[in-house]
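Module 6 notes. Inverse folding takes a fixed backbone as the condition and produces residue identities as the prediction. Think of it as a translation problem where the source language is geometry and the target language is the twenty amino acids. Below is one complete input and output pair. Work through it position by position during the lab.
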């Protein structure tokens, strides 16, 4: 899954909206569900609401602060350290 901005661009789309207090995405700025799990993992976050918006993380709203969206393109799954893969077993 990718950031909704990769699909919708700056068009306002009905979706779940989250705040990231660590990055300063609050009030009129927010993140989509994918970004909150990928880009803002382990940050101080809260659910805002479901409404029409575009993802400010994917839109580059944090680039000036040195933060780039990691979810604009599909990512390769990397299992957590210590978990053996069952592929080929």
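Target side of the pair, the amino acids:
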């Amino acid at each position: 899954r990718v950031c909704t901005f990769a699909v919708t661009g700056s068009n306002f789309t009905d979706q779940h909206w989250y705040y990231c207090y660590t990055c300063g995405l609050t009030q009129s700025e927010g993140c989509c569900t994918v970004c909150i799990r990928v880009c803002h993992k382990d940050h101080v976050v809260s659910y805002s609401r479901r409404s029409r918006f575009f993802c400010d993380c994917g839109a580059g709203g944090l680039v000036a602060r040195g933060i780039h969206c990691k979810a604009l393109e599909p990512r390769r799954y990397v299992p957590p350290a210590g978990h053996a893969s069952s592929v080929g077993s």
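Reference fact for the lab report: The chain has a mean pLDDT of 87.
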